[in-house]
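Handout, section B. The chain below has 255 residues.
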Amino acid sequence: MADVKWIKIVVDIFNDEKILLIESLPDADSIIVCWFKLLCLAGKQNNDGVLMLNDRLAYTDEMLSTVFRRPLQTVRLALDTFVQFGMIEIVNGAITIPNWGKHQSIDRLEKLREYQKEYHREYRKKQAQIPEAVDRKDDRKLYVNDTDIDIDKDKKKNKSKNVFIPPTQEEVEAYCKEKGYDIDTEFFFRYYTASNWKRRDGTPVLNWKQTVVTWVKKDQEKAKKKNQITTAAEYKPPNGAVDKELLDKIKAAGL
């Protein structure tokens, strides 16, 4: 059987009558050490408290002396004491601990083993449900699991977000040429590059093509205002000086 890594020891073990009686004996400390070593060995063997080296060979006092690294005389004294106090029994030449359940929770260990077995069964079952990827030259197919689908969804979400990538000057020129926009593309590109692609109000540019369209519209509005002829009644020359040539043009237009 597989060994266990712990044994159950009550905290008031040294108040137990048998331990108290052992402490009154000569070599009490050595005997108590042998008892704990015996419990640990039984836990390691995990054979319901029966100390067997293998299926056919039981531990002898000489073997225990070697394993415990204690004098043979001390081990024999300890074993005799344990037999007298009913702490161990010799059954068919094998040392057994009759109340092993007091020192090791067998039920709890069995539940732990069953839990581990069930966990591994479920894990293997889930793994078996994931088909292997099939890679063919003439017909490529990819089988994915739920995790892969979630990753794809995240990628699509990231693509749907407005992540601005500044254009190059060549891209701006190509776009304006395609749309027939007559603007100073170099000035446009240098202006927004210097502002780190932010508008006058400090808001970031999210679509540079739409910004080009807005730029074109403003240029057109400026040109329209510059070339616009006002009426004679509305004409107010700056600093009171009359621009006779412009005034004549306004009158000639019949405005």
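Note. The CA atoms of residues 35 and 105 lie 18 Å apart. Compare this with the example in section A.
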